[in-house]
ornithine decarboxylase
Amino acid sequence: MTAMIPGALRAANLAVPAADVIDPAAAFIASRQFDRPTLVVSRDRVTAQYDALVAGLGEARIHYAVKANPAPEIIRALVLKGARFDAASRGEIELCLSQGATGADISFGNTIKKPADIAYAHAHGITLFAADSEAEIDKLAAHAPGARVYLRVIVENSDADWPLSRKFGCARSAMLPLMDYARGAGVDVAGLSFHVGSQTRNPASWNPVLDQIAALWTAGREAGHDLRVLNLGGGFPATYEDEVMGAARYAAEVMDAVTERFGTVPYIMAEPGRGLVAEAGHIVAEVLLVSRKSADDLHRWVYLDIGMFSGLAETMGEAIRYRIQTPHDGGETGACILAGPSCDSADILYEQRPINLPTALACGDRVVIRNCGAYTSSYSSVGFNGFPPLDVVVI
Ligand SMILES: Cc1ncc(COP(=O)(O)O)c(C=O)c1O
């Protein structure tokens, strides 16, 4: 990032809404110039959101899904708040340890792990692991003796904007045999996990999923498995195009639904990623080109200096619809196709459902892509086509 003298002129151009007065990332962006796409994230907003989630989750412990935003400053701030962490890899474990977390604070939540990484985690005091197959159970038995394992269940999650089905989890029909297999391998089947699907905007969408898990929970206990860890995964939503329910109320509604079905559970964990960090950050970017393909082309094409490969991967399938602030907000708007700068024709952000942007938008205009704190910096390529990876500033 190039921080220059606060640019009053450019700041005035931004049409910053009043709410941004208490939005440190927006205020920071408005007061500076940037020479490349930059994500600005506010630690205070992350910790405030953490408090809101804690208020709603009650007894359930937060294991922050590090993959959503692995900025060391965010991990450190969450360590100081007493958070725990869901790590997907050795790299994320090392990051958490380097910022003050202990092995006891970290769960290794990927169901696909390198044996050497399991051994590394075990040697660093991590005792809580995910698995969804016999082969993964075998690895844990060999490299993390004494581990507590939560088994991940495939659930149907058609209500999520960013579903996480199929790739992870074991079919419900295969779960009891898997529990028995783990017991035979000497592995402690401590509980169950699932993911309702990322960006599940309606808390009521959890109910049918919780019904499926509760039935398995009861069956597992009846089969003699000492299930005592219930991992709710993520799914807690952020406001993008549509406003979502506040984090505390959303989490409280989910917990009411959990209590109704499970009663008292010794350890309930939730793994928010998006719902914890998305709204704490915005990306500042620039319009590179506005054009039409022919004189009678109905569509304007707007090209930004950020795209699918440099941070906005979640526009894939037009799944996540970001709000874009421009210097011309309030003026006349029209539909346009929004695209990134790279030479890959897949680098189109919104086309099936074109986005409405001001007709006055022009090359050189600064745009602010709102609520981008999750799954942007961690998805950004190192330098596809020579475009720089997303810069990150944590304030
Ligand atoms: C195991 C696990 N837990 C938690 C999360 C975070 O999900 P979300 O960002 O919806 O909160 C993910 C996301 O991929 C995940 O894979």
User: Anything to note?
Assistant: Residues 1-21 have pLDDT under 50 and may be disordered.
